[in-house]
C-alpha cells in the first residue's frame, strides 16, 4: 500500500481516538463511577510511563545502586514532594544524573 | 493581558520542560524515517498527519521491514489506543466548547500536552478560557515536533546520547504526578499502575501501558468507593 495512504488512515484513526470521548461527552450518559474513575487516569498513566523509564535498564528490572536513572528519579520524587515546583524538580533530577555519571 | 493570552502562555510555559525531552526524539525519528526508506517529504508529513511519537517510530520500523499497509495501520491504532483514555479524562473539562475547538484540541492531544493540562484542570478547575492552556501546550509541542523532525531529517541525530536529554521527560512527569498523589487511592493507583507497567513491559504495541493504566484506575476507584461506603456506614 502507498505510504501516503497508510499515513492518512493511521492519522485519521489516531485523530478519531483523540476526538472520541471529547466529542461524545455530553451526548452520552456518564455514570458516577466512571466520572470518579476518570480522576485516576493522571496518576495511573503518568506512573505507567515513569516506572519503566527509571526502574528498567536494557529492558531488565534494575534495583541496584548502579541504576543512575533510578537514583536520580528518586531525588526528583523527593524534590517534587518538598517544592511542588516543576522546574526545580527537573533541574535537581538532571543534576543528580549528571553527578552520578561523573562520580560513578 | 487577556485571559486567553494568559492561559495560552501558561500552557506554553508548562510545556517547555517537556520540549527539552521530546526534541531529541523528534530528531531520532526524522533520521530513522529516512533510514527506513521514506522520502523526506513523507518523513516530515508523518509528524503532522499522525503526530504521535511512538507510533511514528513503530511505523518506520515496519516500513523498513516492508510490512503490509493494513498491518501498519492496525499497529498505529493499537499503539495510540491510550489517547482514548486522555480523551475521556479531558472530556468533562472541554464539554462546553464548540466542535471546532474540540477538533483542534483533539488533533493536538498527545501524552505531553495531556499531562500538564489535566493536572492544571484537576487542581484549578476550568474557567471559560481554560482551553487556551491546552491549546498553548499542544501547539508548543506540535511546533517543537515539526522542527525537531526536520532537523533529524537534514542533520541526523546531532545530539549526543550521553547528554541524557531524554531523561527530562520522565522527570517532568514525576514533577507532575507527585502533587497529584494527595490521598491513599491516588497513591495506590499510581503504584499499582507502575508495577503492572514493569511486569507487562514486554507486551507489544505499548499494550503494557494501557493495561497498567486500567489496573491503576480500577484500584484507585475501588479504594475510593470502599472509603466512601465506610464513611456512610
Strand composition percent of chain A:
under 5%
Q: Strand order within the widest sheet of chain A?
A: 1-2
Question: Would you identify the regions of chain A where 5 or more consecutive residues have pLDDT less than 50?
Answer: none
Q: Helix fraction of chain A? A: over 70%
The largest β sheet of chain A comes out as: 2 strands, antiparallel
Which class do the helix and strand fractions of chain B yield?
A: mainly alpha
Mean pLDDT of chain A: 93
Estimate percent helicity of chain B: over 70%
What is the H/E string of chain B?
HHHHHHHHHHH
Oligomer classification:
heterodimer
List the total number of helices of chain B. Answer: 11
Features:
heterodimer; A: 104 residues; mainly alpha; 2 domains; two-stranded antiparallel ribbon; 2 strands; 75% helix; extended; B: 233 residues; 11 helices; globular
Please specify the SSE layout and strand pairing.
The complex is a heterodimer of chains A (104) and B (233).
Chain A: H1 3-24, H2 32-38, H3 41-55, E1 56-57, E2 60-61, H4 68-83, H5 86-103
Antiparallel strand pairs in A: 1-2
Helix pairs in contact in A: 4-5
Chain B: H1 3-35, H2 40-49, H3 53-64, H4 69-79, H5 82-94, H6 99-107, H7 111-124, H8 131-155, H9 168-177, H10 184-199, H11 207-232
Helix pairs in contact in B: 1-3, 1-7, 1-8, 1-9, 2-8, 3-4, 5-7, 7-8, 10-11
